[in-house]
Structure prediction request, 318 residues.
Amino acid sequence: MRRTFTPREFRYVAYAALIVCAVIVFSGAAVRVTGSGLGCPDWPRCDGSRLTPELKTHGLIEFGNRLMTSVVALPCLLAVWMAWRRRPYRRDLLLISLTLPLGVAAQAVWGGLTVIYDLAPGWVIMHFLLSMMLLVGCVALVWRATFEPGARPPSADRYSTWAVRLLLVPGAAALTGGAIVTGAGPHAGGAGTGDVVERIRWHGPETLDWAIGRHSTTGAVLGLAAVAVWLLVRWRSRERTLMAVMTAVCVLVACQGGIGILQYQLGLPPEVVWFHVVFATLTWIALLFATAAAGRIRSGPEAPPPPEPVPARELARH
Prediction:
């Protein structure tokens, strides 16, 4: 008899996939801020004919991040198999789970190209944004696995739903702007191995300040928009799950803003930059969960309320 899986078991592997796909972003950021991006200068081998690195710090850091890809692939592949064997079977979960190993494979190949092209900013930026796109699939899988079809009614307020959805626009803009700042900043990823890495030079020596100014503005817009949407949800929707997730979004955006100001004042120290990337990732995940919690918009006219039940004593009179 073939092994089948319960909804609870599948939900566990969906959460595991989300966690490891977030952790590999954290490890990738550690590679960058420690200057270990070219600790293994070739791909898929580490250095020429060597699969593994020499016992040097930066090579081990970069190779460890590559090994993380295998760790990430395991729950993503497991999610596909368990979605196929889940009972009751759900086609939507299988289709979403298929995006995870495909995303991991794309990430691995793109990471290899990033190394081959010596950490050129455009390749690094897209590598980070691919990670954010992979998290979209992870959050969608977790949310769908948490609720059975029809368990959550459509949104009671379309304005709240659309407002939450639109928060993804400044959220994505802030992520992209932060990646551009990193592409213009001092943490190119090659400092530890003595490699000179190309930097973004759109505005000459003023590029970093220019990028930081735009990124700060986008972050402020995201923060103000998040607070406005929180107030709108509290006023019009008051759906408990959505309120909780929107509160988390506001707190994370505030923390992210504080870390951003701190790292600028301290001159972009590697440790604080790493925390900035971590909180950016967590904020993006929270925004995705908020979008899911906002729900679907009810299509067509609202159904009339059911008739009031007639008390038993009234029926007895007839």
About this structure: Residues 207-237 form the longest helix (31 residues).
